[in-house]
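Lab notebook, design round three. We kept the backbone fixed and only want residue identities now. Task for the bench partner: fill in a sequence for the structure below.
Input structure tokens:
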């Protein structure tokens, strides 16, 4: 009884195996346009592989195309996909492999393969990744600019007080041919990263090229470069000397050039200290009132040539420490001065306060053109700023008077300040002209006993006025002229000021009209 049961179970199991195995094998024999049932491919479901082998092959091919490789060159890193690197599409070949598995062998081999597939034991391996050489070369060439590092030429610099050579730094370029071989091998071996081969790029100018020139420039810069013009000495800064000696390299040979344009400011600075106008030599009735002095002018064009010659000598390894710049002497002029005293009661005496400065030079020009004289009461602080104008006043025959040092109301000054206001200007005008003034006009006409006493102590007259056209209000030239003409009589003293344009505008016509009316001007 037991034996019969066992036989029946065995028969049933055998029938089941036949059904389980026979059905897929039958399908495989009929559906030759599909892979055999149960094949495994990558991480896809077996049902996906059987239902659409072409789509399964395409999915695996796309997955391979999206795989990246890390390419490194120096500090540059790139992660292109295999598709970017020129992967040959494996989809068709993989599809062919799927269709051939379990069908391209002997009957018994195919039977075994199909049986293994049913049990999930048969896997189709995709073909090895292959790169198209031309596409790979194009992809790597496109990376060349990013991988390439330009070399840095050696250069000469002035730093920390000395001339130094900054060394050259080699560059690099991608060796595309070697890189194609390296990437191809890495993809073949499924290596995740590749060190791209590079080739060094030499700098056009090396440290060795500059050594001799740097020594020449260093010697030239270490030595002082003194610009001498007359009594003036000025030392050019070392960095300016360095900038004036540029080094160029041609054919691997360095030479020291000259560019003196940058030293123009140094020459101008020397000229500012050297240039001066000649001072008048003033003689009054045989006595030298002011000795005069020669002027000087730096010849800038010749100075530039002298500096250029020195730089050229230094570029050749020679030169000297001091460059003498040519200075041209400007002779002084001698003029004969007249006392310029008032000529008596028939004259109208024109007086001008608050100079020098303002319009004093214009007023002097008009008086000279008209052959007229006047009296100028000058302020000490302004005389100090315009000594040549003070000398001109006296040299052209005008009378020079003291108008205090600061133009203060002297009636409100302390005795010490009052004395100083007069004495300081007296000494200043004497130093400028060699003549001590004898006339004084108090600012604002403010005078009291103390002011008169201080003037007497300096042997000064106290001069006021009789006609005041209020030109200091700047009412216009015609108004000033008409006011003076309406009021002035022989012997009158007219108060005018050098600071207002109205006075300048009025003066030519005023002198002409006074003279036409029989009133001489002094």
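Proposed sequence:
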């Amino acid at each position: 009884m037991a034996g019969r049961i066992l036989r029946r179970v065995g028969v049933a199991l055998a029938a089941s195996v036949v059904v389980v195995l026979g059905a897929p094998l039958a399908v495989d024999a009929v559906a030759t346009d599909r892979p055999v049932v149960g094949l495994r491919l990558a991480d896809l479901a077996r049902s996906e592989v059987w239902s659409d082998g072409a789509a399964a092959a395409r999915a695996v091919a796309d997955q391979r195309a999206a795989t990246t490789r890390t390419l490194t060159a120096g500090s540059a890193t790139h992660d292109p996909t295999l598709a970017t690197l020129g992967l040959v599409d494996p989809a068709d070949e993989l599809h062919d492999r799927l269709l051939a598995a379990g069908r391209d062998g002997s009957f018994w081999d195919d039977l075994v393969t199909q049986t293994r597939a049913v049990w999930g034991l048969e896997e189709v391996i995709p073909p090895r990744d292959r790169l198209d050489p031309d596409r790979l070369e194009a992809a790597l060439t496109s990376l060349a600019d990013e991988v390439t590092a330009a070399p840095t030429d050696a250069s000469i610099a002035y730093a920390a007080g000395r001339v130094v050579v900054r060394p050259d730094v080699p560059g690099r370029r991608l060796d595309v041919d070697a890189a194609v071989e390296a990437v191809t091998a890495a993809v073949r071996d499924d290596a995740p990263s590749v060190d791209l081969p590079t080739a060094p790029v030499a700098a056009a100018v090396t440290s060795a090229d500059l050594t001799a020139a740097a020594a020449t420039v260093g010697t030239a810069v270490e030595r002082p470069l003194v610009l001498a013009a007359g009594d003036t000495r000025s030392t050019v800064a070392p960095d300016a000397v360095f900038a004036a000696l540029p080094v160029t390299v041609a054919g691997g040979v360095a030479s020291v050039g000259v560019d003196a344009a940058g030293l123009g400011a140094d020459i101008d600075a020397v000229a500012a200290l050297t240039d001066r106008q000649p001072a008048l030599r003033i003689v009054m009735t045989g006595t030298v009132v002011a000795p005069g002095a020669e002027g000087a002018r730096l010849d800038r064009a010749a100075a530039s040539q002298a500096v250029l010659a020195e730089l050229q000598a230094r570029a050749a390894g020679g030169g000297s420490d001091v460059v003498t710049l040519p200075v041209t002497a400007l002779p002084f002029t001698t003029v004969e001065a007249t006392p310029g005293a008032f000529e008596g009661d028939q004259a109208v005496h024109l007086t001008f306060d608050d100079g020098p400065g303002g319009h004093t030079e214009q007023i002097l020009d008009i008086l000279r053109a008209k052959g007229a004289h006047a009296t100028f009461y000058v302020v000490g602080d302004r005389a100090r700023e315009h000594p040549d104008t003070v000398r001109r006043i006296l040299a052209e025959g005008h009378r020079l008077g003291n108008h205090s040092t600061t133009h203060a109301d002297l009636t409100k000054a302390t005795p010490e300040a009052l004395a100083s206001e007069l004495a300081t200007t007296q000494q200043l005008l004497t130093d400028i002209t060699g003549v001590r003034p004898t006339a004084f006009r108090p600012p604002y006409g403010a005078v009291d006993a103390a002011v008169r006493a201080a003037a007497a102590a300096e042997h000064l007259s106290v001069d006021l006025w009789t006609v005041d056209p209020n030109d200091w209000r700047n009412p216009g030239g015609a108004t000033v002229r008409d006011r003076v003409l309406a009021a002035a009589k022989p012997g009158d003293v007219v108060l005018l000021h050098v600071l207002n344009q109205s006075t300048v505008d009025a003066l030519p016509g005023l002198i002409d009209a006074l003279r036409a009316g029989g009133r001489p001007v002094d």
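Keep this in mind before ordering anything: Confidence is low (pLDDT under 50) at residues 9-21, 338-343.
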